[in-house]
Design brief:
single chain, Rossmann fold, five-stranded parallel beta sheet, 8 helices, 44% helix, 12% strand, Thymidylate kinase, dTMP kinase activity, Thymidylate_kin_CS, ATP binding, transferase
């Protein structure tokens, strides 16, 4: 008989800017709540913390920071909330994240930093049980409302980011990294997301894994 207590599932939704992440996360959260499933949503960067406010200023091009510095701030922002995520999971709550460490690595690597260096600050963070990557082309992203309002919303950079995401995805199994075509109607994307997430919400009897520990 297993001694591991049932815990909540850790679900991360990733993608390029304007890929529909925020819409899909909100839709998923509402659906889980409707089903009576305890759920908590985190959005990274969390711009409400002291570190998050520094990141927000940078993303709005209101301040300038070295690429290494901003990368470490993004990582620190995740570590600020790591203990809260673990506590919620242990209590049986499903945790949703709108972006996570993979975005930090993808964007910083796309700007020219080393992939290995970019991963190192996030080693040992709680690892998602599944990451859903909402896949669109930079051209599709550009056609959506609000594109270009923040520092990273430039087509050339987004194309590089997409390439790094694809590289990162190769490190995971098909069960733990799922690519979803996000260029379709949002209702169709939402149904695909639900089919993957719902089976995980009954509780998991496996230990929470740690991000990238095996590659450190």
């Amino acid at each position: 008989m297993s001694s591991v207590r049932s815990r909540g599932a850790f679900i991360v939704i990733e993608g390029l800017d304007r890929s529909g992440k925020t819409t899909q996360v909100a839709t998923l959260q509402t659906r889980l709540e409707t089903e009576g499933i305890p759920v908590k949503l985190f959005k990274f960067p969390d711009r409400t913390t002291t570190i998050g406010q520094m990141i927000d200023s940078y993303l709005r091009s209101q301040s300038e920071l070295d690429d290494h510095v901003i990368h470490l701030l993004f990582s620190a922002n995740r570590w600020e909330l790591a203990a809260s995520i673990e506590q919620l999971l242990a209590a049986g709550t499903t945790v949703l994240c709108d972006r996570y460490a993979f975005s930090g690595v993808a964007f910083s690597t796309a700007k020219g930093l080393s992939l290995e260096w970019c991963r190192s600050p996030d080693i040992s963070l709680p690892a998602p049980d599944v990451t859903l990557f909402l896949n669109i082309t930079p051209e599709q992203a550009r056609s959506r409302g609000g594109y270009g309002e923040e520092r990273y919303e430039k087509e050339e950079l987004q194309r590089k980011v997409r390439d790094v995401f694809q590289q990162i995805s190769s490190e995971f199994t098909e069960a733990t990294w799922v690519t979803i075509d996000a260029g379709r109607e949002r209702e169709d994307v939402a149904e695909d997301v639900w089919k993957i997430v719902y089976p995980l919400t009954g509780g998991l009897a496996i230990p929470l894994q740690r991000l990238w520990e095996r590659t450190s």
